[in-house]
Amino acid sequence: MVKIDREQFQWLDSQLPNGVRPEGYTWHHSEVSGKMELVEFGINNSTWHKGGRAPGNWANSPR
């Protein structure tokens, strides 16, 4: 079981074709249950949000 985002992101990176996340991109917890999205870092951080981390959403559960 993945306990922290860093571990989850490392696992997700390893699933990419070359095993490396493109520079300037980060993983986003989508509001869709279990869905992670690879998005540009600047876009992800341009507005405050919780995505799937919002209370009651899938990524807000204990790890």
TrEMBL record:
This is HNH endonuclease. It comes from the Bacteria. InterPro entries: WHH_dom_containing. It comes from Enterococcus rivorum.
